[in-house]
Task: inverse folding
């Protein structure tokens, strides 16, 4: 098939573009290297929807972040992902910080960020009594919020597929040819032909651009380590807590997640290895030594898990979105913070670029924006639970005790595309609680194996190479010679 548009990269930005373009009568494909969308940078994102006052007004980040923030209420209504506007506090630890916060407020108001307000120490400690009494004040941004970014990716992808977009997972692109105005993106599983290519490949965007001879930008992976704390700390803070921002990053944050846990981080370390998501003792020390200065109630003793992600930092230090000298090849690169917030606005921006580049399409009258969100037993009250269970044994059986996830919810995740333990975890939270899967992993694996009709040895954490069981020789797949015959 010749596609009108081929999107390379199934992170939140690629999926947002796919859904936006699905509004029109176009043939669209998205190819993703991992076994599921959102399994790269997106799943290790901090999950913050920024109000927009941090980004310079003249930057592309600054122009798209405020619009993106405003689109999230309608997006959540359609896609049913976890999202709550809890507000952000940028705290001042010294007099110089107070001056910077005043400048941030002025900059944000010029961009149209609503509700910005400077709080003195008394107001700050009244709203957040667990913060240090040494703080001098804060800038309050009520439009900021938290989401579950992996849920958003799954919702965007499901909506796009529902409206005709073809997704090719586990298909890493290794070369791109151009013949008579048609691109051929050669993948590890199959090649895809398209008139336009959208390069949304995250930390590999510069490598994808090099495949068509473009070398005008470089991506520097920047690792951020984050630490998840026990739910007993729920409510220790109620807002997103930001230190006054630094030139390289927004600093070490305190993040009350949508589901009630507290997360602290991230660090900001430039690395060369584009697969390096390791955590370190040095990173943990950096995070907690900073956080304790403004919230003494937080301790490393409460960590239940830790992880790291890579931000795709372009050498321009801004988003790189636009057409190139290779006609039909469009970069959507350097999408670091606030890329998650800007994602729906980036999708609109890319659609306009495509129109300017000559793509034409009729808007569909049958476009369906909404999907059915998953049931969340843990969020129901007693009456809702009784009505939902209604004698169904799968709805009554708890698989994950920490997060109160039922067998019916795990089945729903599998039937909506989960093929791995992480696929289930990021859809319904089985394995995200205090015991980190110690109770539920075997149960989830049994369900995955049963529903996919495969042996337990084939079940993995995040795709091929991360199988939970070391395979026995008789379980390994046969190799093939060049003629395709089994050996």
Result:
């Amino acid at each position: 098939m010749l596609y009108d548009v081929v999107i390379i990269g199934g992170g939140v930005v690629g999926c947002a573009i796919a859904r936006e373009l699905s509004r029109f009568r176009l043939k669209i494909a998205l190819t993703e290297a991992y076994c599921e969308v959102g399994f790269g940078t997106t799943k290790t994102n901090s999950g913050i929807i920024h109000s927009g006052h941090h980004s310079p007004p003249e930057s592309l980040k600054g122009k798209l972040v405020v619009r993106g923030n405003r689109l999230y209420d309608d997006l959540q209504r359609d896609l049913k992902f976890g999202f709550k506007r809890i507000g952000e506090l940028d705290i001042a630890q010294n007099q110089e910080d107070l001056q910077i916060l005043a400048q941030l407020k002025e900059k944000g108001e010029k961009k149209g960020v609503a509700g910005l307000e400077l709080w003195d120490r008394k107001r700050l400690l009244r709203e957040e009594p667990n913060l240090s009494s040494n703080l001098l004040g804060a800038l309050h941004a009520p439009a900021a919020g938290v989401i579950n970014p992996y849920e958003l990716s799954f919702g965007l992808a499901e909506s796009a597929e529902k409206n005709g977009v073809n997704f090719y997972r586990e298909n890493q692109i290794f070369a791109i040819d151009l013949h008579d105005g048609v691109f051929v993106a050669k993948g590890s599983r199959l090649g895809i032909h398209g008139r336009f290519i959208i390069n949304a490949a995250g930390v590999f965007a510069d490598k994808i651009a090099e495949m068509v001879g473009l070398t005008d930008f470089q991506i520097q992976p920047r690792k951020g380590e984050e630490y998840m704390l026990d739910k007993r700390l729920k409510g220790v803070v109620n807002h997103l807590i930001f230190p006054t921002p630094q030139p390289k990053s927004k600093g070490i944050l305190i993040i009350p997640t949508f589901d009630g846990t507290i997360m602290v981080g991230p660090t900001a370390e430039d690395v060369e290895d584009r697969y390096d998501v390791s955590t370190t003792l040095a990173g943990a020390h950096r995070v907690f030594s900073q956080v304790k200065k403004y919230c003494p109630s937080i301790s490393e003793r409460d960590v239940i898990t830790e992880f790291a992600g890579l931000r795709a930092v372009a050498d321009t230090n801004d988003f790189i979105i636009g057409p190139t000298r290779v006609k039909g090849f469009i970069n959507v690169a350097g999408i670091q913070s606030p890329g998650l917030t800007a994602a729906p606005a980036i999708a609109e921006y890319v659609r306009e670029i495509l129109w300017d580049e000559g793509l034409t399409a009729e808007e569909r009258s049958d476009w369906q924006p909404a999907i059915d969100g998953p049931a969340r037993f843990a969020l129901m009250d007693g009456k809702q639970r009784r009505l939902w269970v209604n004698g169904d044994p799968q709805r009554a059986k708890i698989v994950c005790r920490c997060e109160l996830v039922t067998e019916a919810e795990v089945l729903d995740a599998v039937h909506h595309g989960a093929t791995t333990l992480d696929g289930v975890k990021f859809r319904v939270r089985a394995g995200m609680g205090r015991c980190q899967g110690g109770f539920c992993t075997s149960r989830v694996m049994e369900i995955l194996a049963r529903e996919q009709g495969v042996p337990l040895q084939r079940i993995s954490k995040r795709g091929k190479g991360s199988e939970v069981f070391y395979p026995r020789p008789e379980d390994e797949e046969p190799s093939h010679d060049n003629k395709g015959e089994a050996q």
Summary: The chain has three domains: 1-84+146-218+315-373, 88-142+220-314, 377-468. Residues 29 and 166 are 5 Å apart (CA to CA). DSSP finds 13 helices and 22 strands in the chain. Residues 478-487 have pLDDT under 50 and may be disordered.
